[in-house]
Structure prediction request, 566 residues.
Amino acid sequence: MDVKKPTLQEKITRLRMSFLSQMPARLDKAQQQYRLLSSDWQAHAKLAVELHRFFHSIKGTASSFGFTGLADIADTGETLLLTLIELPETEVPGNKLLPLGELLSEMKQQLQQLQQSRGDVADDTQHAPFFEMEQDDSNRAESNRKALIYICDDEPEQVTQLGYQLHCFGYEIEYFLDTQSFHNAVLKRRPDAVIMDVYFPNGSTAGTDELARLSVIIGEALPSIVLSGYGDFEARLGAVQAGCLAYFTKPAQALDLAAKLDELLLGERREEQLRILVVDDEPEVAAYHSLILQEAGMSVKQLHDPSGILDVLRQFNPDLVLADMYMPRCTGVELAAIIRQLPEYISLPIVYLSNETNRKKQFSAMQVGVEGFITKPVIPEELVAAVVLRAERMRTLRALMSRDSLTSLYNHTTTTEMLHTSLAQAIRQQENLILVMLDLDNFKEVNDLHGHMAGDQVLVALSRILKHRLRGSDIIGRYGGEEFALLLKDVTLVYAEKLVNQLREDFSNIAFTAGKARFNCTFSAGLSCYPDYTHVDALRMAADRALYQAKHQGRNQVVVGRYRHD
Ligand SMILES: Nc1nc2c(ncn2[C@@H]2O[C@H](COP(=O)(O)OP(=O)(O)OP(=O)(O)O)[C@@H](O)[C@H]2O)c(=O)[nH]1
Prediction:
């Protein structure tokens, strides 16, 4: 059955209803606590704190959901209770308690009115509340689909050569030798991007004319790159008018085209989503804020019990924590202090979501290293802007610290850290882990013969291939100058060997140019595997030994380091 996905508004309505449906039980409990307090204040003094929490929490949630009447009553109750809690221990509030009872009755009336005006609330709660249905979207299957590129050019040899090299970079390529077959194919299956020649036998600007025609038919311009033998003004103008995004003159390097394609496609296949951890003991409020952030394209994890923070931080690795300030077992301030005890999270941005408007309290909360306050009820755009700004800054900082500037792969330190954590995870989950040590062959010669810049070009090409061809969950690091380390998770040694061999072969077919010279490059690789080796050092040594053997045996090959029972 085709189940229609609820809209954002429907999800929010469901959350509001879920909140309202829980109110009668919460109110009954609060009234009971009030009666006990009235009968003997000193014996039940602890209940005053609980009742204060009740009003505080209703105030925040009700205002987030737009139930302003309820929020106002809760606000008065919270202030009143605060003055009562601060009374000297010997003083009994007596009549001062009466307004509390009135406030609770007023709340009940408000609630009845809300329920009547909103139809059958009880019936609505038969649906699973949103936060159970879609608590976490971080596990959404990562799309590993290769980008589909159409190349249209009437010179078969050039097209096949270029197509083959781009295929080595990890794109799915289809060739067309004339504009008509290209036209038909686009209408059948839309490519992610197009590389188009300009001049065809049927017209000197037939290529760009075809792109312009198609954009009218399909209602948008296809992301296109022109690859032409001509670089004159007319040809370039035709390309601009057809909405093409880049222009290359032949012969173009596959590496440059691949770089441009990546740039064009980045808009659609965006960088990894920002990961936000929302900590709030009120599931509806957590779900509401999560919804807003998810709607803005972020990956959100909710945590309702702060005691799970250590595990969630490790597993989810958020870019920002959005925490409620007032939670029963552990306040937001205490939570932030715990996070800051861990050196690896020292710079993780923490933002409080709170209805705390007291500047003094805000200031003391900031002293544990919290980035800022967002006061409830939040304005969705403000929440998104505040979160994105800080989370992106965190991403940039992390990238600067953990990535290599030439290839943007993980640097040596981060790769080593990841080797430790990945092995621990593999042991915990009883999954295979393959370590691949990969080293360019005779790279000194490349530098010596063609210059350092040509060498850099090779390093970039290899990292691009690795990024395209490995899964998002695999780890790719630049381990040394011309040495790379790969961590392939949950695959067999046989599969990994085949994959690395395929990469080796494809890479060896990429043609590089330096001035007039054309050259190719190869690499050697050594593999080792958990569970064959159960310690990081042993795993690394086994892969190194295998790499050494590959070099020794003549380079451009893959060797698997088998466990030796000696
Ligand atoms: N262009 C460029 N070269 C680098 C970079 N980092 C290291 N290298 C060079 O990589 C070369 C490594 O040379 P060697 O360790 O002798 O190894 P090789 O020539 O690749 O020989 P084998 O590994 O035995 O096949 C040196 O010439 C380094 O200067 C870099 O970032 N860019």
Q: What stands out?
A: Residues 406, 439-445, 447, 452, 455-456, 459, 481-482, 551, 555 surround guanosine-5'-triphosphate (CB under 6 Å). The chain has four domains: 8-127, 148-266, 275-402, 412-560. The first helix runs from residue 8 to 39.
